[in-house]
Amino acid sequence: MKTSVILPTYNEKDSIVLLISEIRKTLTAEGIDHEVVIVDDNSPDGTYPMVVQRFSDDPQVVPILRTREKGLASAILHGILHSSGDKIVVMDTDFNHPPNLIPLMIKITDYFDIALGSRYVIGGGMETSRLRFVGSKLFNKFIHYTLGVKTTDNLSGYFAFNKTILQGIDLESIFYGYGDYFIRFLYVMQKNKRFILELPVVYKDRQGGLSKTDLKNELIRYTGTVLKIRFGFWKKK
């Protein structure tokens, strides 16, 4: 079976080549048939042409340029829809998510529908701000009690799954906005009684580039997402 690793990018010139190389090295060493799909939203820093130039002779690296649409969630969906793998891995492109966990996550999906990297199970954590770790953990508690989900890290964005679980799902009602898509994704999958296994992941400091996360706006957006799901107004029109 083939695995597609989806990397949504925007101004990741400083880290993307190293990340792709690490992913390719890791999966090749494990004998895993794979492709790496990079979906770039026309980054002004030249991320896309750099990937094309560096990996022009590597058919397992698939760069895609979007010029009419932007956004993390829609980029991920675009990558999924244009992938050829039976299994999908989604991860950040700044080394927040360690590539060495990908083979284990793929193996887990032989037995579970979804493998989820969590900062809040035993062995997980963050090497970044302690305040941010605690704040994120508290917000995940809010998601847990408001929506009745069992997952501990509903903001992770580091996950693997069998592509077949997307059949019959209104994907455009999930994959829009920013990281809030992942709250909707996990909510829908748990409502559909999909089996999810969380494994510990330690977030690393980003390598290169600037964070595109505005914590205040992020908190407002994610809180709104949770409340819309709770009261049934979350589907994109």
> What composes the largest sheet?
7 strands, mixed
User: What is the C-level CATH assignment?
Assistant: Alpha Beta
Query: What count of structural domains?
Result: 1
Counting copies of identical and different chains, the oligomeric state is: single chain
The general outline is globular
Could you say what the CATH architecture is?
Answer: Alpha-Beta Complex
**Care to count the β-strands?**
9
Radius of gyration: 17 Å
**Which secondary-structure class do the elements indicate?**
alpha/beta
Which parts are unreliable, with pLDDT below 50 for 5 consecutive residues or more? Answer: none
Share of β-strand residues: 15-25%
Question: Ends: how far apart?
Answer: 35 Å
Output the CATH topology: Spore Coat Polysaccharide Biosynthesis Protein SpsA, Chain A
Order of helices and strands: EHEHEHEHEEHEHEEH
Write down the overall mean pLDDT.
92
Order of adjacent strands in the largest pleated sheet = 3-2-1-4-7-5-8
Continuous helix count: 7
- The proportion of residues forming helix, as a percent range, comes to 25-40%
- At the fourth CATH level, what is the homologous superfamily? Spore Coat Polysaccharide Biosynthesis Protein SpsA, Chain A
Key terms:
alpha/beta, 237 residues, two-stranded parallel sheet, 7 helices, seven-stranded mixed beta sheet, globular, Spore Coat Polysaccharide Biosynthesis Protein SpsA, Chain A
